[in-house]
Amino acid sequence: MTSFVEVILPLPLSQTFTYSVPEEYASLIQSGLRVLVPFRERTLTGIILSQVERPPEKIKSVRPILSVLDEVPLFSPSFLGFILDLSRLSLTAVGELLKAAAPPEFLVKEKGGYKRLKTPTSEEIRLKFRKKFKEAEKIIGCLPEKKTRTWRFLSRQTQINYPGLMALLSRMEKLGWVGQEKRLKVPPRRKKALEPPAAIQLSLGFPVTPELEPVLNEVFRGLFSQEFKPFLLLGLRRRREAFFLALLNKWGTSAGNVLILTPDIVGATSFWEKMVKIFGPKRVALLHHELPGGKREATWQRIFRGEADVVVGPRSAVFAPLSKLRLIWITEESDEGYVHLDPAYDAREAAWLRAQQEEAVVVYGSTAPSVGLYARAKEKGFLLSLGEASFAPVRITTSASTGEKILGPEVRKAIEQRLSRKEKVVIFLNRRGYASLIACPRCGRIALCPQCRRPLTLYVSRAKAICHQCHYEEACWSQCPQCGSSVIEYRGHGLERIAEEIRRFWPQVRLSSLEADSAKGKKRRPAALKDWQRGRLDILIGTQFLLSSLEWTNSSLVVILNPEVMLAQADFRTGERVFQLIRRLQDEMVSSSKPELLIQTAAPENYVFKALANGDYEQFAATELRFRRLLGLPPWQGLIRLTLTGQSLRGLARQARSLKNELEFSGEPVELLGPTVLPRLRRKNQVQILIKGKDREEVVTRVYDWLKKKTVNYSAQVFY
Ligand SMILES: [Zn+2]
Ligand SMILES: [Zn+2]
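Above are the sequence and the zinc ion SMILES. Below is the predicted complex in structure-token form.
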């Protein structure tokens, strides 16, 4: 009897595909093995998801798999379960997640591509392709005669999505218009793994204070219970780290492996160094996507073979192939660095799903966790606290409204005092450039990006006006292009403007500024940070980027300028973000001798700043949660932001209507807002739909099922 398998393919699709298994392979089949399969005119590496008795009824002909690549499965059943859950709950194609989970060397390289063999006339194309005439003409137009082009290139150029493009290309191939060049690089065969080395028992001698003991025991019991257990651990960063080490000390790694997820690569590297000091270099692995290809694969193999007990990495390490995972440690729950965009997933949610599948423990650490998780932890009883923390005091002052000056008298006085004592000052402002708005006061014209219609930011240092969205740039206005007025107004002061004012007040001061732009890739430490570490600066000013650097704790004063501009953004989580941001600044200042945090704001009465001044997270969380309940926002309701992208607005509107119909006539009632037309991005139209429903999982699943049936290009964000 023939048997069949469901296979996941590394394509931007959420469907699985059915293949038959030839007799010779029948005894080898297991889920998680790699197989080579034919797919349209190509050969791909897929992963067996499961064995099935018969193919789905609607499928007429089933093709056989070409070969089985492994003796041992690449992924365990629980890992595959995790990938499927994550795909559904993040609305991300399962094939894309598969690609993120396996190193590229493990999948067949799609080197070759398509080339033009014959140039059909417009008439011929019209005759053969009728309705799809325009699309077909575009494809032909993009194909050179001599060189090959990959489908990814064609899809990008023509804006036709993957299934549509493949259908057209295969018809053209039958007509003899295009040809395919295959350069297949078959990945190496995987043999049986070696026995992993025995676990080690540590003896580090960390003192566990009596009040820590019950908390430690709670997590400890979780580790040995062999069931899924989440914990939210409230406490200062240093205390959380000490707790983690104490936990390792008590536990060793006798019952399984540890995965540590940090918000970025810099953080991962420093945590990895700490772990290497304890376990030695052989038992600890650092895994991230910026490792060079060979090294990344070698690291992956080492983890796969069970040679590493501890894996440290940023968000992508959530896919590390640990086979005996017992503990996932999230170092900083409040950091947005855990959000991955392409493919879209949130590593914090992914860690939860993975721990659930592997029946492991996941610990989220934070001083100011997201209120959604906090509410859940309180309700379900998984909130742990490392005791009261004494934070650096917060003082609130109102913005200077007098004349040109940005720094108010209180801020100036505080800086003056620190400078006279030869102490260091950090100034924080979340706005880059000189001014965020360039306007003509006479006719009201604003400098906008011609592509995205967003206001341009003025950079005096580069003498340019730049779009932060698409990096478009133009020369600064010397006069208004509309009315010719030579008086130009600059609103929304940024870092450059603050630097200018500081130099005016204190000409002798050693000053440097740090913004995300000047520190690309986060791999190299920017010069400003090096100077700061070596004590060559008196004042460091910077954007949010400062936070991930964490090297500025030797300052006794941190000034936060106009954090209320962040509150004005159209995102319901901005209150939470601002609170978390300032709380983390406080967290990092604990070591400094007599630190102070000064917030200069135009909205001193805002609940976020009041809660900060009182040093009260609970007060903040309670207010925030009450607001969100009133407005029907997460965590009380599921919220999905779905952006559909395509060439024609009419087509997008049709898709939006189809989604609306689908959701309105099935299951629990949902609320749909939109579609709203967004600014065009890379010459494509975009519409956005917000979907709200009482039960997040239920509404996400329904949207997922709809997306599976459609061939529309989309991006989605699921809020927690
Ligand atoms: Zn004008
Ligand atoms: Zn732009």
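DSSP finds 22 helices and 33 strands in the chain.
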